[in-house]
Design goal:
Helix content of chain A: 25-40%
Shape of chain B: globular
Distance between the termini of chain A: 74 Å
Order of helices and strands of chain A: HEHEEEEEEH
Largest sheet of chain A: 5 strands, mixed, barrel
Strand content of chain B: 15-25%
Distance between the termini of chain B: 51 Å
Radius of gyration of chain B: 33 Å
Helix content of chain B: 40-55%
Number of helices of chain A: 3
Strand order of the largest sheet of chain A: 2-4-5-7-6
Oligomer: heterodimer
Number of strands of chain A: 7
Chain lengths: ~130, ~775
């Protein structure tokens, strides 16, 4: 009986350690461009799209390139794998996930946040009167 | 108003049901039994009536109700209009309450036959009353002028032409205006999946409360064995419905939403997977307890956790706590809903676990009689492994909360976390679902075991070797494939034998065949999919991937927002027409991309539209240095200088509006003229104003200015020149950019699902019959 409990506890502890290590390894930390430039890990940066700067989609490479500035107002050229994300124009803030390499931030994912998108605000309401 | 009162009425009846059931339970007599039944039935009628009322309000477009206005509109077809009932939080909680109330009626009759009525209905009424409390906070019958009092409540004369109004206080001349049209349903939800998927999921969520209720009833009655038999068919039913709901959601994402796959480990998906895994694991340990009376505590804990995980998932996805970390937009539910959801979870958790601890000491010790080589032990190991999967997925999904507490900043885990942690568990689950079928209850003799083992073992070994030769080289994937194939072959062999003997006992083997097929399907379609992004110029044939010839034929407008893109696909001698669509939605001001799937026997060919690019042959960009001349479209264009007169006048410092001009000289056929396109800044917003050349038939627009103050001759301007003369008759080259992918043997996933469900159905039939038998 004691051996059973011992084996069971070893398995449980091992599983938990495995889970914890994976968790730390794969956690995509929120950070800014300054620390993204020195980090080798995948990180995510929240900021704003700089609409007035050049941007465009390269069909050959399937890359959407744009400029964004993070919460510390640091600007960065971002190369996103894929097409221009949904709601990009109206997003109040965007979050890019990826790595900094050479001189650009290469993003594998981009989330757009539109807080009042589906919520009833007074302005939309007035239009439906 | 009536709706709100009905919610209160149903809530009060549910409370009466709680109290009367508690008294009945305590006194152990039937004096109040009629009261318990009437109060519960009244509560159910109340819920049904307010749900009917809400549907009526939606169907008749009563936009004076905030909820109706917020999610529906007059232009929706009937099925979608009905589905707006549960498009928002208030409505989906109403749906949950409705299913809970109705299921309770059946549960009451069922538990009355089993002499479990007052305990079961006590707990069930508690669940219902909490859902109704939620509806009191998030009331679907809120009036729109209460939501926007400043904009809608007026006093005095009603202006001419206003017909949508309601008197609030006619004596004092106070009236409220309300909208004549609703905001409409989010276009992402506008398809047939929205009509069926949420109900199934909510029936699943509702069913997860049944094992919880029976477990608590068992604890209250000090019946530590009998409740399992009664709860078993319901638990299997819940597992089946929730499982169906989950996979339908995956199919929705794959087929319509264009996520590229059927599973994205998104919090919303995970939140239904976690309770399902707990439920599945409890089905296994319940089976062991039915057989040998062991795992008493385990079954209590798992049955309680089934429901607690539903509540936790609801908290995660409904309270706004996940915030910025997912592609789903989580609406902030408000402080009340947040605390209520949290309280909901803590209350039912504390109730279940607390009661279990109080009874723990008096529970009889069941001596463990089975050996390690027994089916009981295999079931226990399997259930534990599934639980570990549930724990890991819970940790991953809760990552924003965990990191917020530890580091003060929410961060989600990468999808890799889920793959990494669940893959080894999947291997163990697959192996166990194979070995477990070969083991006997109590203990197994090596001789019996070895008699059945060789055939499936050799078959799966050969299968894996073939796949290895075909190119499956990743070690973990090879092991996973072997384990899944082993599970498949063992269950086919064992299942066939049982099936011949007694069909109704084959449910387990069939369900496991389904799981093994699912696992193999996951490997082939997700690990060995092949994708390529390609730009298809209209009319030109492109060969991609494994010899697929794609030709973009053209597009047509489905309606004023939707466009279908016709792509001809030729592969292996056959030709198909595919039509991915793009939806330029005004509602959410965004582009929704819908894929098209070509389902072949051995694979899916999947086209996801990315964008349409028009290469405008009449438009050209060029960059000019000061004084430089370039020829384009038969024009000679010289950049003379910038015009900073506005800036020099100091307008830039004052703010407001100022122009920066770029003086350009346009030369054509010996005629020259000077024009000045402008860059206008008004309060920080930049506009580019083009200038037309009269005899040159061209229009010049500034793209970018790069003045150089230190060295003015280095000043540059980028302009775009457009030929105005050549009309729209000149064809423009249009390119469709798509992501094409081949998903081998994805049919295994769908077939596996169907097989799994068939297994569930057979098991339910058997367990219902078993529960009917008298002990």
């Amino acid at each position: 009986m004691k051996i059973k409990i011992l084996i069971a506890s070893i398995i449980i502890v091992a599983a938990l350690i495995f889970g914890a290590v994976s968790f730390v390894e794969t956690n995509v930390e929120y950070t800014d461009f300054q620390s993204a430039m020195t980090s080798n890990k995948k990180v995510q940066v929240k900021g704003e799209w700089l609409k007035e700067k050049e941007h465009g989609y390269d069909a050959g490479k399937n890359e959407f390139t744009f400029f964004m500035k993070d919460d510390n107002n640091q600007e960065m050229k971002v190369v996103l794998k894929g097409a221009k994300p949904n709601n990009f124009e109206i997003a109040t803030s965007i979050v890019v996930k990826g790595r900094f390499r050479d001189e650009y931030f290469y993003a594998s994912e981009c989330l757009t946040k539109c807080p009042s998108k589906y919520e009833g605000d007074a302005e939309t309401m007035k239009k439906t009167l | 108003m009536v709706g709100t009162y009905l919610i209160y009425f149903a809530f009060l009846c549910a409370v009466v049901s709680i109290v009367s059931n508690y008294i009945t339970f305590k006194r152990k007599d039937d004096r109040y039994i009629q009261l318990t039944r009437y109060s519960y039935h009244f509560a159910t009628s109340g819920v049904m009536t307010f749900c009917a009322l809400l549907i009526y309000l939606i169907l008749t477009h009563q936009f004076q109700y905030t909820y109706v206005w917020n999610y529906s509109s007059t232009d929706l077809p009937l099925p979608l209009l009905i589905s707006t009932f549960y498009a928002g939080q208030e409505g989906s909680f109403s749906l949950w309450a409705l299913f809970t109330a109705v299921l309770g009626v059946f549960l009451m009759q069922y538990s009355a036959r089993k002499q479990f009525e007052s305990e079961v209905m006590l707990v069930w009424s508690l669940v219902l009353s909490f859902l109704l409390l939620m509806l009191i906070v998030k009331n679907p019958f809120a009036l729109i002028w209460d939501s926007f009092p400043n904009d809608l409540i007026h006093s005095g004369e009603i202006p001419m032409g206003v017909s949508n109004f309601m008197w609030i206080d006619q004596a004092r001349g106070i009236w409220a205006q309300f909208p004549s049209e609703g905001k409409g349903l989010n276009p992402l939800l506008q398809n047939y999946w929205m009509v069926i998927h949420p109900q199934i999921l909510f029936i699943g969520f509702t069913s997860m409360a049944v094992p919880y209720t029976f477990a608590l009833a068992g604890l209250l009655r000090r019946d530590y064995q009998g409740w399992v038999k009664i709860a078993k068919p319901w638990t299997v039913f819940g597992g089946m419905v929730l499982g169906t709901g989950i996979i339908l959601g995956g199919y929705w994402a794959y087929e319509t939403l264009g996520w590229g796959g059927y599973w994205g480990w998104d919090p919303v998906e995970n939140s239904s997977l976690i309770p399902w895994l707990v439920c599945i694991s409890s089905i296994h340990t319940m089976m062991a307890q039915r057989r040998s009376g062991t795992f008493v505590r385990t079954n209590f804990i798992l049955s309680i956790m089934c429901f607690i995980m539903v509540l936790y998932s609801t908290f995660l996805t409904r309270s706004g706590v996940l915030g910025d970390t997912s592609v789903h937009s989580f609406v902030d539910a408000g402080m009340w809903a947040y605390w209520l959801l949290l309280g909901f979870m803590v209350f039912f958790g504390a109730l279940g676990i607390g009661l279990l601890f109080r009874r723990m000491k008096e529970m009889p010790k069941i001596p463990v009689e089975h050996s390690i080589y027994s089916r009981e032990f295999a079931l226990f190991l399997g259930a534990s492994t599934i639980c570990f999967a549930a724990i890991f997925i819970t940790i991953g999904t809760s990552s924003p909360i965990i990191t917020n507490i530890i580091k003060g900043r929410a961060a989600a885990v990468d999808i890799a976390f889920y793959v990494k942690t669940t893959l080894p568990l999947g291997i163990i689950i697959a192996l166990l679902s194979g070995f477990g079928q070969l083991l006997w209850w109590g203990t197994s003799k090596a001789r019996d075991f070895l008699k059945v083992l060789p055939v499936p073992f050799i078959a799966s070994l050969l299968f894996t070797i073939v796949l290895f030769i075909l190119g499956v080289r990743d070690v973990v994937i090879v092991i996973f494939t072997f384990a899944s194939a082993f599970a498949l072959f063992v269950n086919v062999v064992v299942g066939y034998r049982i099936f011949r003997g007694n069909t109704k006992y084959a449910g387990g083997a069939i369900a496991h065949i389904g799981v093994a097929m699912l696992f193999l399907g996951f490997v082939s379609s997700a690990r060995y999919d092949d994708k390529q992004t390609v730009s298809l110029e209209q009319g030109k044939t492109v060969n991609i991937l494994d010899d697929y010839e794609l030709t973009y034929v053209g597009n047509h407008a489905i309606d004023d927002e939707r466009f279908g893109f016709h792509v001809q696909v030729s592969h292996a001698g056959s030709s198909f027409m595919m039509m991915p669509t793009m939806h330029f939605s005004k509602f959410s001001n965004s582009t929704l991309r819908h894929p098209d799937v070509l389902n072949l026997y051995t694979k899916d060919f999947y086209i996801s539209p990315l964008s349409v690019e028009t290469v405008d042959k009449k438009k050209n960009n060029l960059t000019l240095l000061k004084g430089q001349k370039k020829n384009i479209l038969g024009l000679g264009i010289t950049f003379i200088d910038f015009d900073f007169s506005d800036v020099q006048k100091g307008k830039m410092l004052e703010g407001g509006t100022f122009n920066i001009g770029a003086v350009m000289e346009v030369e054509k056929d010996g005629k020259r003229e000077r024009i000045k396109p402008l860059m206008r800044s008004s309060n920080g917003a930049i506009d580019y104003i083009p200038a037309k050349s009269i005899h040159g038939d061209a229009e010049i627009t500034i793209v970018k200015i790069q003045p150089n103050r230190e060295n003015p001759s280095d000043s540059k301007v980028e302009i775009s020149v457009q030929d105005k003369k050549s009309g729209p008759s000149e064809p423009q080259a249009e390119s469709l950019i798509i992501e094409a992918s081949v998903k081998p043997f994805i049919n295994l996933v769908w077939m596996g699902t169907v097989t799994l469900i068939v297994g569930f159905v057979i098991t339910i039939i058997r367990r219902v019959q078993e529960a009917r038998e008298k002990d």
